[in-house]
C-alpha cells in the first residue's frame, strides 16, 4: 500500500475530500495538521498534529522524524502547507517541486520580480518595507494602485487605492491584516503595484515532468475592479477565443518553467486586456475551497483523486463529460456573527443547480475581503452552456437569505440610541 504524508490544515475545506480520495485509491494517509503547538500536548495530540506550517524548516524536521516508515509522497491540501510539503519531499528525495520554486511563487514580490526579469507583461511595482512611511512612496506612484500582503492567498489583504489618501489608508489596513496572519510580517513588508484593467480568468492545471496540462480555464464573469477583490463565480469552459486561451496556457506554462515548478497541481490567476495576458499569480496548489468539486464532471474523478494518483504514480486517464459547469463562492455581505440561512431548499431546486453547501458555522465570526479568509459556502451548477451554468448560480444565490448579526450588538444598540 502506498503511503502519503498529507498536510491537513485545521481550517481546510478539502480535508475530507482528500481523505475520501485516498480511501478510493487504497492509499494510506499519514495525517499531519497545524493545531496549536502549545495546546496540542495538553490535549494528548501527537507532534504530527501540531506542525507549524508557517515555519517549514522546523516543521520538516518534526514531520520526517514522526512520520515513521517509508513515504511515497508528501502533499499539502492548500496554500498554507505547500512550502512545508516541498521541503519534506526534497529532503526525502521524493517527487515534488523544489522548495525554492514554491517559495518564489508564494511570495508576490518575488513572483513579480521573476515576471519583470523574464519580460512577461508586468505592472510597475514597488516593495514597501514595514519601517517605511507610505507617504514617501506615494509621489512615485501612478494611480490607481493595488496594495497587497506578500504571502496571503485569495483576496485577503488586497486593496485598490485611487489617490494618496486612499493609499495611506490601504497600507495601514493591509499591514494590520498581514501582521495578524503572517508571523514574518515585519520582515516581509508589502507590495504595491499598478492596477491592471481587464477581465479575470483562472487556469487549473497539472504539471508532469515540467509539461503543463490545462484541466480547466474558468471565466470570472463578475468584474473585479476593487476596492476589494472578493471572487464569486467561476464558470468553465471559458468563452474566450481559442487563440487567447492558448496564449494563457503558454504564459502560465512558461512562468512555471522559469520559476522551477515541474510537477503537481497549478492554479493561476490571470487578467486579459487589449495589451495581452497578465499573470496575477501562479500557485503550486490546486483551486481553493470546495471549488475543485466543479471539475469532477469534466475530469471523470475528483481533483483530489487526480492529484493523489499522480503523486503515487497511478495512471490518471480523464474520462469526463462535455457541457458547462460553475461554482459560486457565496460572498460574505458584511462583517458579523453568522446565525443561519433561509431558502436553501429553494436554491437547490433551481434547474441546473447540482449542489449547495453552507460551510459557515452558527456563531462563527465572518468578514468579507480584505479581512476575511472564508466564504459562507458554495453553490454548484451544470448546464449545456456556460451562460446557463452562470445563470443558475445567480438565481440560486438570489433565493438565499443569511442571518448575520452585529459583532457587538450592545455597542451598536447604544450607538443607535444616541440623538
Annotation keywords:
disordered C terminus, four-stranded antiparallel beta sheet, globular, Aldehyde Oxidoreductase, domain 3, alpha+beta, single chain, 419 residues, 15 helices, Rossmann fold, Dna Ligase, domain 1, 18 strands
Structural class of the helices, strands and pairings? Answer: alpha+beta
Radius of gyration from the alpha-carbon trace, in angstroms: 22 Å
CATH topology of the domain at 3-104: Rossmann fold
Tell me the β content.
25-35%
Helical run tally: 15
How would the global form be characterised?
globular
Topology, number of strands: 18
Provide the spatial order of strands within the biggest beta sheet: 4-7-5-6
- Average residue-wise pLDDT: 92
- What kind of sheet is the major sheet? 4 strands, antiparallel
What is the CA–CA distance across the termini? 71 Å
CATH class of the domain at 3-104 reads: Alpha Beta
Architecture (CATH level 2) name of the domain at 3-104? 3-Layer(aba) Sandwich
Low-confidence stretches: 411-419
Helix content: 25-40%
What layout of secondary structure does this protein have?
Layout: E1 3-8, H1 15-25, E2 28-33, H2 40-43, H3 56-67, E3 73-76, H4 82-92, H5 99-106, H6 108-117, E4 125-128, H7 134-137, E5 145-149, E6 158-161, H8 164-181, H9 185-188, E7 190-194, E8 199-208, E9 211-219, E10 233-236, H10 242-259, E11 264-273, E12 276-283, H11 296-299, H12 303-312, E13 324-330, E14 336-342, H13 344-348, E15 353-358, E16 365-366, E17 377-383, H14 386-398, E18 401-405, H15 409-417
Parallel strand pairs: 1-2, 1-3
Antiparallel strand pairs: 4-7, 5-6, 5-7, 8-9, 8-11, 10-13, 11-12, 13-17, 14-16, 14-18, 15-17
Helix pairs in contact: 1-12, 3-4, 4-5
Amino acid at each position: 500500500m502506498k503511503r502519503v504524508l498529507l498536510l491537513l490544515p485545521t481550517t481546510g475545506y478539502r480535508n475530507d475530500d482528500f481523505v475520501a480520495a485516498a480511501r478510493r485509491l487504497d492509499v494510506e494517509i499519514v495525517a499531519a495538521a497545524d493545531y496549536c503547538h502549545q495546546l496540542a500536548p495538553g490535549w494528548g495530540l501527537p507532534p504530527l498534529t501540531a506542525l507549524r506550517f508557517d515555519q517549514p524548516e522546523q516543521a520538516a524536521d518534526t514531520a520526517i522524524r514522526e512520520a515513521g516508515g517509508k513515504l511515497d509522497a508528501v502533499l499539502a491540501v492548500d496554500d498554507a502547507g505547500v512550502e512545508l510539503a516541498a521541503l519534506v519531499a526534497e529532503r526525502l528525495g521524493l517527487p515534488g517541486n523544489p522548495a525554492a520554486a514554491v517559495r518564489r511563487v508564494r511570495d508576490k514580490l518575488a513572483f513579480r520580480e521573476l515576471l519583470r526579469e523574464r519580460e512577461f507583461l508586468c505592472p510597475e511595482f514597488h516593495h514597501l518595507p514595514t519601517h517605511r512611511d507610505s507617504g514617501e512612496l506615494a509621489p512615485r506612484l501612478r494611480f490607481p494602485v493595488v496594495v497587497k500582503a506578500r504571502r496571503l492567498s485569495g483576496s485577503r489583504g488586497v486593496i485598490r487605492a485611487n489617490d494618496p489618501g486612499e493609499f495611506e489608508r490601504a497600507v495601514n489596513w493591509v499591514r494590520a491584516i498581514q501582521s495578524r496572519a503572517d508571523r514574518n510580517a515585519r520582515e516581509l513588508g508589502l507590495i504595491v503595484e499598478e492596477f491592471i484593467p481587464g477581465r479575470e480568468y483562472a487556469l487549473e492545471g497539472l504539471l508532469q515532468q515540467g509539461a503543463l496540462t490545462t484541466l480547466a480555464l474558468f471565466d470570472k464573469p463578475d468584474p473585479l475592479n476593487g476596492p476589494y477583490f472578493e471572487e464569486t463565480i467561476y464558470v468553465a469552459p471559458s468563452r474566450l477565443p481559442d487563440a487567447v486561451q492558448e496564449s494563457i496556457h503558454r504564459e502560465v506554462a512558461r512562468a512555471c518553467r522559469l520559476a522551477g515548478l515541474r510537477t503537481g497541481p497549478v492554479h493561476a490567476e490571470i487578467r486579459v486586456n487589449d495589451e495581452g495576458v497578465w499573470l496575477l499569480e501562479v500557485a503550486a496548489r490546486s483551486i481553493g475551497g470546495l471549488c475543485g468539486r466543479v471539475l469532477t464532471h469534466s475530469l471523470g474523478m475528483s481533483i483530489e483523486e487526480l492529484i493523489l494518483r499522480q503523486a503515487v504514480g497511478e495512471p490518471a486517464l480523464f474520462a469526463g463529460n462535455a457541457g458547462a459547469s460553475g461554482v459560486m463562492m457565496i460572498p460574505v455581505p458584511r462583517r458579523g456573527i453568522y446565525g443561519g440561512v433561509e431558502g436553501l431548499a429553494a436554491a437547490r431546486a433551481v434547474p441546473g443547480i447540482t449542489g449547495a453547501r453552507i460551510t459557515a458555522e452558527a456563531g462563527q465570526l465572518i468578514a468579507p475581503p480584505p479581512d476575511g479568509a472564508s466564504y459562507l459556502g458554495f453553490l454548484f451548477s451544470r448546464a449545456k452552456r456556460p451562460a446557463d451554468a452562470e445563470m443558475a448560480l445567480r438565481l440560486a444565490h438570489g433565493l438565499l437569505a443569511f442571518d448575520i448579526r452585529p459583532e457587538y450588538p450592545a455597542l451598536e444598540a447604544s450607538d443607535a440610541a444616541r440623538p
